[in-house]
Amino acid sequence: xxxxxxxxxxxxxxxxxxxxxxxxxxxxxxxxxxxxxxxxxxxxxxxxxxxxxxxxxx
Length: 58
Known about the structure:
With 58 residues, the protein is mainly α. It is built from two helices and no strands.
């Protein structure tokens, strides 16, 4: 019975800590969000000039 209590206590502790971390991350990421639609950020087409992936071709 004590083993079940320890396992459930650990699971409850992990869930509570992840909930706190989730709230902190959610509030910290809302400062730089841009308000706008897709059309307001899509004025010019995307041009790819070159590709660098540093993977040698066989």
